[in-house]
Amino acid sequence: MNMRNLYKKPHTYFVLLLFLAVVLFIGREFYLDGGKLEIINKDRPVRIGYFHGGRVNMMYRALIYDYFDEGGISVELYTRFLKEEELFKIPQTHEETNKMWKDDIKFGNPFGKMRGTEIVDLIVEGELDGGTIGESSFIASIHEGLPIVVVAMLGYDAVPGKAIIMRRDVEINSPDDLRGTTLISRRAGPGDAIFLREFLEEVNLVPGEDLTVIDQVDEDDTEKWLKEKTIDGGLYHLTTVRHLVLDGTAYVYQPMSWMDPALSHALLVFHKDYIQNHREEVKRVVDAYVKRIAYEKGLPEEQKDRSWDKGLMMEGEFQGMEIPSYDLPPRIRVDLLEEMQGLLYKYGEIDKTVDIRDFIDESFVE
Question: pTM for this structure?
């Protein structure tokens, strides 16, 4: 073929370009719509620490519905039972996961209860490669000089997903009625304790003077203490709020509307050395996670799981609150991290502020 003649024929040139574009698009869609890539790390799965909660359940669904395997990456999620040290691998199916839930537990369920700071410690020790952690655990960890980097945003509260709830027999008609009460925040990173203190500042109440505040309460005790009338209320997460309201133990005093609910969000992090040495593995983990988000975003509303089955549900609303949302693409919200860093500094959790961008790798999310 005479190439000079080809370039003299714009129509022919345009057709060639169009053909190449179609070929590339079809190849891309083959992967996005179900084409399976060869697994590149069969002998060494990516080990990710996991907390079984709404802000990270998309990663769980990516696992049990084979999005990682289809994306050519072997992934194992690891977690613990509450108050236990043993690390165990989460099963590949939801049916097997349900078998691990402990039926003899009276208050709550201890499955998958790992704090972000615990996950980071295991990453630093080399037992894990990455993890799903909350925003406050991430900020606290980088201030300790720990070598972790965030690569994608996970779930966040687009509308309030937490609330101040009170025991059914404790009547609160105004903030002044909270004087003399005992409130709690849940065992987590420092975030929940800060959210509760911001509420109390908003209503001009001082912990330790006007009322008692207990932080870092284990999930089972948050329910047990309320039912036993050891406490009067506190800041609770939506699934627990719904359970305690429906069984008549408590009522919602105020959803978390006193500050931006999206400050409560989760992040996918990896050890910085793992990112440096295994960029393709990290990319495939993020790609599979993004593909699962895209799938759920594309479902008709009537097909989205609303079962309140933890791990599976995609949508859920109760008294104006909702389970966490996921963005597509899941870009890291530096503005939220900077605001949360300011709050940790305000409450003495950290002694200075740093440039958050130094601990972010945005190259994995397009």
Answer: 0.88
